[in-house]
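Below is our example:

___
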Amino acid sequence: MGFSFKRGEIRLIFYLTASLIVLGCLHMIIKLHISQGNSKLIDDTLIFSLPSGFTCPGAKDCLSKADRKTGKITDGKNQKFRCFSASQEAVYPSLRKAVWNNFTLLKKVSKDLSKPPYLSMRNLLVAGIKKKINHKINKLRIHVGGDFYSEDYFKAWLLAAKTFPSLIFYAYTKSIPFIVSNLNDIPSNVKFVCSEGGKFDHLIEEYGLKRAKVVFSLDEAKELGLDLDHDDSHAYDDSAEDFGLLIHGTQKINSSASKAWKKIKKTVGGYSKKRKYGK
């Protein structure tokens, strides 16, 4: 036995279906977590993050993961120092919830078969940025935690950046193959810094890419001839060359990184909007 609907009923069904789809999209947009500023960055910068380690295909020296439910840290077998963001996720359940929520939403919209995954993710990112942006904002840091976990996701950010040409988008990344394969499509308002210590370091020199290196002391930075960044300005400033970042955050007990961090806390301190380092 078949079913038949009157024209008015068909219109009503179509309207209700469309409304549910729109409400579903709005619900996802509302839940996308983009923050504004932190202890290191002033409030002219938006921040978007994903789960550290779980979304970092190029990580090696810093590979760490905080369990989604418990926050327990798991360190990579080749780790030399612990990822700061993973350490933060281990301590703050609200942060774990936010970054995993972002990751879940991106994966969910990328399953939309009506369009390429990078377009679906781009639309979600653009909607989230529009909801958060205000007159103070002139920059967006892509990932305090996490990295570009797929090329579709990488392309989604390139497209999102084109929607906001007056906004500077920047990211530290070890997903260097995605940069290389999209060199001709990177908008002028997108700045990438290759984080040394990953699986694809050989591509940094091969393609003449800008790099940042985590150092364990002021002396190490001086020996390497690297200026130390304290506020990300070296990352988004085109005139800045390769630079160093002082190790920071909780480290594995009795490790070289832990000893270095203890010394830094006593002599220099952690990140601060007001703190500056010399060479």
